[in-house]
Amino acid sequence: MPNEKTKDERVQDIMASPDYDNMELWDEVCESDPKYVTYCSSHGGYHSIKAQIQRKAATEKFGFYGMGWGISNLVWACDEKENILDAYFWYIWKGEKFGFPMRVSAKPAPGYDPYKKLLTDLTTKALSMLGFNSDVHQGLYKDPAYMDSMKKKFYQNNKDEEEERAIEEEINNEGLEDIRESCRTLANEISELRDLSTTQAVERIRGGYGVVFGKIERMGEKNLKKLQEALEADIEAWNKEIEEGEDDEH
Asked: E strands of the chain, at which residues?
């Protein structure tokens, strides 16, 4: 089509619009609902936002994952020393597609899926570049006054309180299953330690327990009893499997 504008020209038109504001997107997504902000005491103490809530916020702002926003060109590099993910994060804003490359890395440790962890880390960091939940990343939740102001803002209307509780319960159950899976993985790792040197075994155990305890810490006190009951059921099932295996050997 003749005289069709290039993408750069269309972007310039957007930026030249009288109502254009560099901080428009940032200001719309920077504040976090306190219900989904958790505190972890490790590494000097820090707050984090639940990853699923970030995905929901991105979907509300851009559209379906894979249609309005997403991650492409994934390149994995995982070995015994370091796990790395290079990828391209993209999103649709004001009718145009934008994006930028990202890289995340993590040390291997038993008890977690490196692919899931790296993809979650990359999503969180990419969204933070756009301002999503920047109050958490800026450390504003360390200020009790700021936290109180967010509670007043998000809880002033209690019409959807029951629905919000249901969402929170779903997220907590998801976290519970994640911890149980980490414990299963750790148990399998420990069973394989006989093939490793003492130093390697100690590192594997230390890393695995660190992952599990970090996840438990983020669950919050009110979920500890539920977690304890679930893990006791898992342990009972594991013991039963071991006993049945021993019977089969005889």
From this structure: 37-40, 46-49, 69-78, 83-93, 96-106
Nearest CA among 64, 183, 14 for reference residue 112? 183
Taking the model in full, what pTM does it have?
Answer: 0.62
31: pLDDT strictly greater than 90: yes
Res 5: pLDDT: 87
Given a contact cutoff of 8 angstroms between Cβ atoms, the answer to whether 47 and 142 are in contact is: yes
The pLDDT mean for the chain works out to 78
Could you report the per-residue pLDDT of 192-223, keeping only the tens digit for each?
555 555 555 555 555 555 555 555 555 555 55
Residue 245, token pair as written in the block: 């295996």
Closest to 71 measured CA to CA, from 22, 123, 112, 129: 123
Determine the angle formed by the axes of helices 51-62 and 161-191, rounding to 10 degrees: 130
Q: Where in the chain is the domain with CATH 3.30.390?
A: 32-154
Question: Residue 101, SS3?
Answer: strand
Residue 79 vs residues 49, 83, 91: alpha-carbon distances, Å: 28, 6, 30
* Residue burial 17-40, b: 16+ Cβ < 10 Å; e: rest: eeeeeeeebeeebbbbbbbbbbee
- DSSP conformation letters of 38-87: EEE-GGG-EEEE-HHHHHHHHHHHH-SBTTTEEEEEEEEEE-SS-EEEEE
Class of domain 32-154: alpha beta
Rounded CA-CA distance 131/160 in Å is 26
Bridge partners, residue 40, by sequence: 46
Q: Which of 143, 132, 109 is nearest to 214 (CA)?
A: 109
Give the separation between CA 202 and CA 199, rounded to whole angstroms.
5
